[in-house]
Amino acid sequence: MKVAIFPGTFDPFTIGHAALVRRVLQLVDTLYISVGINDAKHTMFTADERVERIKALYKDEPRIRVMKYEGLTTDFAHSIGAQFIIRGVRNTVDFEYERGIADVNRMLTGIDTLLLISEPEYAAVSSSVVRELARFGKDISPYLP
Predict the structure, then answer these.
(1) 50, 90, 118, 126: which one is catalytic?
(2) How far, in Å, are 22, 32, 35, 51 from residue 76 at the CA level?
(3) Global pTM?
(4) What string of pLDDT tens digits covers the 145 residues of the chain?
(5) Is 127 a catalytic residue?
(6) Is position 138 annotated as part of the catalytic site?
(7) CATH classification (class only), 2-143
(8) 68 classed as catalytic
């Protein structure tokens, strides 16, 4: 089974995302981690840098493919033949938002979205938290995979 995972709330560089990936790999044959291209959004890394860094994190896992995409997540998932889209959820607010997106994805493509709730110890770990800690010179190593 092929699935596409979209980082959503979890940045691929946080330990919460690594835990999510481990859980997904117990369920699927091939996992596509997708990085959206959005030049208007200012992030720590460009899309190409994000792809290369994520590939480096999972270089020893042959079932993971890391790709970037432009446009709708549903189009990307459909283009790779994904049976499911997977999104990580940290809290109830995220859940409500992601559930709405899941409904739209299903209507547009017929591809279901599996929402995986984070482990409690990672619920507060998001890319924005890690970026702020780094900005103030704090040790971010406990949050990185």
Answers:
(1) 90
(2) 22, 10, 10, 15
(3) 0.74
(4) 788 776 655 566 666 778 888 888 998 899 998 887 776 666 667 788 888 888 888 999 999 999 888 887 788 888 888 888 888 777 777 788 888 888 988 888 888 888 887 776 666 656 666 667 777 888 877 766 6
(5) yes
(6) no
(7) alpha beta
(8) no
